[in-house]
Specification:
Main location: membrane
Order of helices and strands: HEEEHEHEHEEEHEHEHEHHHHHHHHHH
Strand content: 5-15%
Largest sheet: 7 strands, mixed
Distance between the termini: 148 Å
Family: Belongs to the binding-protein-dependent transport system permease family.
Shape: elongated
Subcellular location: Cell membrane
Number of helices: 17
Number of strands: 11
Oligomer: single chain
Membrane topology: Multi-pass membrane protein
Organism: Dermacoccus barathri
Length: about 500
């Protein structure tokens, strides 16, 4: 073989070797890349699972249920942007989500007392909340708007709110915006009620989230309201948890995922680019009447019955203690009556539901309402029973003693049967008042008939029709009770000499 031919073969072998080396390098690089992807894919779920292990198996999520389009009811089901968003968050975290419907002004009290784990209700990020709570990454960003009647052209800048009445949730960030502009705040429970006050001329304006207002105007085409101006502040909505619960870091990672894969945009488009159609008042009543009746049967009536029976038993004990010759026992009974008759039932409800958890006693909403109502009934009924017992002539006691009856036996067989006839009318009034007082349980999340009407009215604005429907249901209950009262009085007075 010639030198030239040999050199050519060597060069070809070198090229083949270099090609083989390059191919091998590319193959190794591809294997490394695939391995890195597989490792990252395996590591991410592992890290995700580790985070999920630190979370409660069930996350209790506080939301209003009456703030469309973020949290409201449609067809009897809780829905809305915040609701659907957090359902997806819970799904990706691998935890069960339990929504706890709570009025906005009670929301942070519920969070602080441990009754809810996190709030999903358009909570605006601000310095005060950063200091007090753990906040997630923002999941939607919007701005504020000032809303007035269409005929009102006096508000052209935020400073024009000075001296005007602005209807606001007093604990919301928008209330601070209105107050900072010099407005006089008119307290309301929700934006739907703020809109109603402005339309009725009982308030001049309100400040709220641009997205919520635009949804309201789109779903209320006959509204007499307009957006007067857009505020300069940017509102970042966040999910809010108690400090050091390690919930929001995991939630924030899911928010980033949902932003990256387009899920956030799909939810946004679902609620903020589609216009809903309004319903007639009659259609809304027909749609919600069944749920209102169900709430009456499942909540209002049982809550009334339990509170009245328990309250009556307590009342008898307190009345007898009040009549006791023992000064200490009588004084304790007087103190009980004074405290529970002298403080508002609503305050008592809040102390039991939101206050007692600070002492380590956490009761569910239904039981909390039952206790508060029972104690309130006991305080009023105790004085009714005491006065009824005193109305029985002393001669009855003396006659019982003459035939050898002990005082407890005389009380049971002689005095109380006569006193019951006197006590029936005022005790019946207490029962009728109790039926209506159950509506206050809505403030701590008990879905009784009135709260059901509020849920239906929030997205539709049909306040008059739905509230009248609720009032009719209460009236029917009270009317039936008044018939029972009349028949009971007739029965007890049948053998009484006149």
């Amino acid at each position: 073989m010639g030198v030239r031919a040999y050199s050519r073969r060597v060069r070809m072998a070198d090229r083949d070797g270099l090609g083989a080396l390059r191919a091998r390098g590319i193959f190794v690089a591809l294997l490394s890349f695939v391995a890195a992807i597989l490792f990252a894919g395996a590591a991410a779920p592992a890290a995700h699972a580790a985070e999920s292990d630190q979370l409660p198996k069930t996350l209790r999520v506080g939301t209003e249920g009456v703030y469309p389009p973020f949290s409201f009811h449609k067809g009897g089901e809780l829905t809305g942007y915040d609701v659907d968003y957090f359902r997806e968050v819970g799904k990706r975290l691998g935890v069960k989500v339990q929504f706890v419907e709570t009025p906005w002004d009670s929301m942070f009290a519920g969070l602080n007392s441990g009754r809810i784990d996190i709030i999903a209700n358009q909570v605006t990020k601000n310095e005060e909340r950063i200091a007090q709570y753990d906040l997630s990454s923002p999941y939607v960003t919007t701005t504020g708007v000032v809303v007035t009647k269409k005929s009102d052209n006096s508000v052209k800048k935020l400073a024009d709110l000075k001296g005007k009445k602005s209807a606001q949730n007093i604990t919301s960030d928008w209330a601070n915006t209105a107050k900072g502009a010099g407005a006089n705040i008119v307290s309301v429970e929700g934006m739907d009620k703020a809109a109603a006050l402005v339309e009725q001329g009982r308030a001049d304006a309100f400040v709220n989230d641009e997205l919520a207002v635009k949804y309201y105007l789109a779903t209320h085409p006959n509204s007499d309201l307009k957006i007067a101006l857009t505020t300069e502040d940017k509102s970042e909505s966040v999910f809010t948890a108690r400090k050091d619960t390690n919930i929001t870091p995991a939630v924030s990672k899911v928010i980033d995922q949902m932003e990256a894969d387009g899920t956030s945009k799909k939810l946004y488009d679902k609620y903020f680019t589609t216009k809903a159609t309004g319903q007639s008042t009659w259609d809304v009543i027909k749609e919600n009447f069944g749920s209102m009746l169900l709430a009456t049967v499942k909540v209002t009536i049982p809550l009334t019955a339990v509170a009245f029976v328990v309250g009556l038993v307590l009342a008898l004990g307190v009345a007898l203690a009040r009549l006791s010759s023992n000064a200490a026992i009588s004084w304790l009974a007087r103190a009980f009556i004074s405290i529970f008759r002298g403080t508002p039932l609503l305050v008592q409800l809040f102390i039991i539901f939101f206050g007692l958890p600070e002492l380590g006693l956490k009761l569910n909403p239904w039981i909390s309402a039952g206790i508060a109502l029972s104690l309130n009934v006991a305080a009023y009924a105790a004085e009714i029973i005491r006065s009824a017992i005193l109305s029985v002539p002393n001669g009855q006691w003396e006659a019982a003693e003459t035939i050898g009856m002990s005082r407890p036996t005389a009380l049971k067989r002689i005095v109380l049967p006569q006193a019951s006839r006197v006590a029936v009318p005022p005790l019946s009034n207490t029962l009728i008042s109790l039926v209506k007082d159950t509506s206050l349980a809505a403030t701590i999340g008990v879905t009784e008939v009135f709260h059901q009407s509020q849920i239906a009215a929030a997205p539709t604005g049909k306040f008059l029709g739905l509230y009248i429907t609720a009032a009719l249901i209460y009236w029917v209950l009270c009317f039936v009770l008044s018939i029972v009262q009349t028949r009971l009085e007739d029965r007890l007075g049948r053998h009484v000499a006149r």
